[in-house]
Amino acid sequence: METWRICATCGVENSIDLEVCAICADERQYLPPGGQRWTSPAERDAEGCRVVVEELEPDLFGLTARPRADIGQTALLARTPAGNLLWDVPGHLDDAAAEAVGRLGGVSAIMPSHPHMFGVQREWARAFGATVWVSARDRHWVRREGPELRSWDEPFEVLPGLHSSQPGGHFPGSAVVLWTAGAGGRGVLLSGDTVATVPAEGWVTFMRSYPNRLPLSAAVVSRVAESVTALEFDRLYDNFGGVVRADARAAVARSAARYVSWVRGDHDDET
Ligand SMILES: [Zn+2]
Ligand SMILES: [Zn+2]
User: Where are the domains of the chain?
Assistant: First the structure.
């Protein structure tokens, strides 16, 4: 029988190395004071952990584990007539959440934007008979392999109207999905933290590590922004409940230009 545990810090399932979570030991993440801790679905249930499902706009739902069972992400369920995409994955799956998602049409495909968002993706896949699409560039970060997992590398239509691509940056395979029917047909970008919102309205950012504040280079931010702004969208949802409600494509371009000017040294005389 398979032995697997959930990293109590990042919420990623693991059957490969139960000494330390490689995702948390990486410089983009962190181990908590006192070191590695593991948990299980039963322990999470006993703690009262539930995945709360909230409607964000027609046919888009946010899934957030409360109390926190992962890095704190809000995974997204995009509903289409051809099936639903679970974009990013909570670190828990409880019966009530499975029922709620079942009432919304279940899950046909699962795609984590990058390894921090793997959560308990195999549990979700098995519950709904879904395929998990993992970037080939980041497949080596998978800590719990299974027949539900498939690799992808070239941009493709995960489900009709949901187009995936990999601008990279935060991870080599960091992905985004364009949902063409979103925002009343103006287009929505599901950005993971390939592009992350910030408190200032109309601005976003790009980082190698968010918790450890590691930047990316001017060249990489330019490349990511070029890849993203080639897509047609008006609204952007990141993986922590952040949203740029309108004119999000311009926000990405404007924010990349500002970021590049700072990391290139244009403003060094102001520091
Ligand atoms: Zn971890
Ligand atoms: Zn991340």
Answer: 49-270
